[in-house]
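Reopening this ticket.

The earlier resolution said the output was attached, but the attachment link was broken on my side. Pasting everything inline this time so it's all in one place.
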Amino acid sequence: MAEQPWQVIERDFSGSLSELPENQLLLPLAFWQANRDELAALNSRFGIWVDSDEEIEAVANDINQFAAIGVNFPVFTDGRGFSTGRLLRERYQFNGQLLALGNTIQDQWFYLRRCGFDAYEVTANANQPSKPLNGFSITYQCAVDQPEPLFRRR
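Inline output:
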């Protein structure tokens, strides 16, 4: 996992498309839905971000046009983003960059990676990653990074 390189456009952005930088943008789901046709015509690299209470199924048919999808964790105790990550990777076969945005803590980064996330946003209260990313050598349950449970690997 690495720090995320995308510029996150805030949910309350009400400007026009011409006011946005050209590349590496993560747009709020509602903004993308409202400007879908115009964004498709642009030749820029962009993705979307969703809050943990937004249904990812709303973009299921358009998943492959995004270079990245960010999932916002409003508080570190909100685990819905982990499920969203797994849905994107396993059900919808999303192969772009999957970003954890917002309030995650170092203890969660190993599990974020297991759910298919490959980048995270460093917030003011987060520590830099170290051992927790490699804190476990064997996992019991299946996940995005290991689809076979332990009993089938023996």
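Reporter confirms the inline version is readable. The mean pLDDT is 81. The first helix runs from residue 29 to 34.
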